[in-house]
Amino acid sequence: MNPIKMLECARNISDLIEENMTELKRLHERKESLPSSTIGSAGSSNENDAAYIRAYEKIENLEKKIFENNAELADHLSTLERIINKIDRWDYRLILKKKYISNKSLNAIAEEINCCEKTIQRKHKKALAAFEKAYNAMPKKFL
């Protein structure tokens, strides 16, 4: 994957993780609201028991997929941070982390660190070049 494209993808990762966690909470609440099964008890029907088991298993499988997805997304963010941390200039690291990990605009970064937006734009461009250099220097087994 192109290193700059990799950074651009990161902008959505935190949002995806948050959406996954919201969905996970919804699924957990749904699982808790399933009518209690009376599996094997007198008066329970095989049909009701089977429906309960299917619903419960479906929710469990969706929860598992969300956990796996979140782990994969977190690994991606971790890789990006590892590459960013290889950049020598602290100001470049700061700009990249705020823009791509924290998903802030260059204008917001400029305001936050009390700096001219033009300066942030110029440093951002140089930070991207530094990121690409750090990315290309990383052993591919870590990417």
Could you walk me through the main structural features you see in this protein, from its secondary elements to its overall organization?
The structure is a single chain. The chain has helices at 3-33, 46-84, 90-101, 106-112, 117-137. The chain has 143 residues and is mostly helical. It has one domain. α1 (3-33) packs antiparallel against α2 and α3 (90-101) crosses α5 (117-137). The longest helix has 39 residues, at 46-84. It is elongated, with a radius of gyration of 23 Å. The N and C termini lie close together (9 Å).
Briefly say what this structure is.
Helix content is 77%, strand content 0%. The chain has 143 residues and is mainly alpha-helical. Helix 1 (3-33) runs antiparallel to helix 2 and helix 4 crosses helix 5 (117-137).
Please tell me the total number of domains: 1
Structural class designation = mainly alpha
Overall pLDDT: 85
> What is the overall silhouette?
elongated
Radius of gyration: 23 Å
Q: Which regions have little confidence, pLDDT < 50, spanning 5+ residues?
A: none
The number of strands is 0
Helix content: over 70%
Residue share in β-strands: under 5%
Listing every helix as H and every strand as E from the N terminus to the C terminus, the arrangement reads HHHHH
Instruction: Please tally the helical runs, counting DSSP H or I stretches of 4 or more residues.
Output: 5
Q: How far apart are the first and last residues' alpha carbons, in Å?
A: 9 Å
Largest sheet: none
